């Protein structure tokens, strides 16, 4: 009976998704909701309001950084989705995503503009959920430095979207300490159970900067996040294309390192966003 209890505890909460390759496209027209364009301080985002949105005074708001509007919406629609969604598809490179959110208070402007466009005239966002792919982490990394916004965070999903610089004075590869420490406010919220944070990574190792698996490993080590034993017969671990190699979990922080060093391996993390969203709700 005791061992059965341990098994139940072990499988509770989010579980690693199967990072199997998935073909998409071509681009399809956006359907199932209303689309608005919002521009603030030179940056433009798309607001999607699903047809099944239920007006209320307090709402949940999701925001995604880096991917085409039609595709992001289609991924959210593969889940039980009925909340408004902001999509920031600003271009290439983390700097492009980070720059608009350097100043504290900026994301609150996006929230206020969103509320103005919502049916039912909601007065506040009660919970904020952020997702990103690849370079989109540049925006998330800056947004989480704003304490009032950070307190709203219920979910953060970073799909192969956790890069950093390398320490240039070290003979071997080492993530720049400041690019580990900058995530600490979010990590603290995850460790305390206030925010669910899911980080998925490939094994791509860029020549001039730290890969997502390297930064996530450094964050896990800094915070004594234990490595969870791999179940070789599990669905994520036994996938033939991009099997799960390592997992670090503590509180509501979930770091899943997958195999794969190709452009397709990288893109697969964007194409499994729906599955990550579903797991974040557990």
Question: What would you note in describing this structure?
Answer:
- The protein is an alpha/beta fold and 282 residues long.
- It is built from eleven helices and nine strands.
- It has a single domain, classed as Alpha/Beta hydrolase fold, catalytic domain (Rossmann fold), CATH 3.40.50.
- It is globular.
List the helices and strands and how they pair.
Layout: H1 2-11, E1 33-40, E2 43-50, E3 58-65, H2 69-77, E4 85-88, H3 94-98, H4 106-117, E5 124-133, H5 137-143, H6 147-150, E6 153-159, H7 178-181, H8 184-191, E7 196-201, H9 212-222, E8 244-250, E9 253-258, H10 263-270, H11 273-280
Parallel strand pairs: 3-4, 3-5, 5-6, 6-7, 7-9
Antiparallel strand pairs: 1-2, 2-4, 8-9
The amount of helix comes to: 25-40%
Number of strands: 9
Unreliable spans: 1-10
The total domain count is 1
Strand order, sheet with most strands? 1-2-4-3-5-6-7-9-8
CATH topology: Rossmann fold
CATH architecture: 3-Layer(aba) Sandwich
The CATH homologous superfamily is termed Alpha/Beta hydrolase fold, catalytic domain
| Highest-level CATH class | Alpha Beta
Summed over residues and divided by their number, the pLDDT gives a mean of 95
Instruction: Give the class from helix and strand content and strand pairing.
Output: alpha/beta
* Cα end-to-end separation: 24 Å
- State the helix count: 11
Radius of gyration (CA) equals 19 Å
Sheet with the most strands, sense and barrel status = 9 strands, mixed
């Amino acid at each position: 009976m005791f061992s059965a209890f341990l098994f139940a505890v072990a499988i509770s909460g989010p579980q690693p998704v199967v990072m199997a390759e998935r073909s998409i496209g071509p681009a399809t027209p956006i359907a199932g909701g209303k689309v608005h364009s919002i521009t603030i301080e030179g940056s433009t985002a798309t607001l999607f309001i699903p047809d099944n949105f239920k007006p209320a005074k307090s709402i949940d708001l999701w925001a995604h950084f880096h991917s085409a509007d039609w595709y992001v919406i289609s991924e959210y629609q593969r889940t039980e989705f009925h909340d408004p969604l902001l999509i920031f598809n600003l271009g290439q490179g983390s700097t492009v995503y980070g720059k608009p959110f350097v100043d504290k208070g900026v994301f609150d402007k996006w929230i206020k503009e969103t509320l103005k466009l919502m049916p039912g005239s909601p007065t506040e966002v009660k919970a904020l959920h952020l997702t990103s792919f690849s370079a989109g982490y540049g925006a998330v990394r800056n947004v989480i430095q704003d304490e009032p916004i950070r307190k709203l965070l219920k979910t953060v999903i970073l799909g192969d979207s956790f890069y950093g610089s390398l320490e240039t004075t070290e003979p071997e590869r080492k993530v720049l300490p400041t690019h580990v420490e900058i995530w600490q406010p979010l990590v603290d919220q995850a460790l305390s159970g206030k925010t669910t944070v899911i980080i998925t990574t490939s094994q791509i190792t860029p020549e001039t900067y730290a890969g997502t698996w390297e930064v996530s490993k450094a964050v896990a080590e800094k915070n004594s996040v234990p490595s969870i034993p791999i179940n070789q017969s599990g669905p994520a671990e036994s996938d033939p294309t991009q099997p799960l190699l390592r997992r670090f979990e503590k509180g509501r922080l979930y770091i899943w390192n997958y195999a794969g060093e190709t452009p397709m391996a990288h893109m697969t993390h964007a194409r499994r966003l729906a599955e990550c969203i579903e797991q974040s709700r557990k």
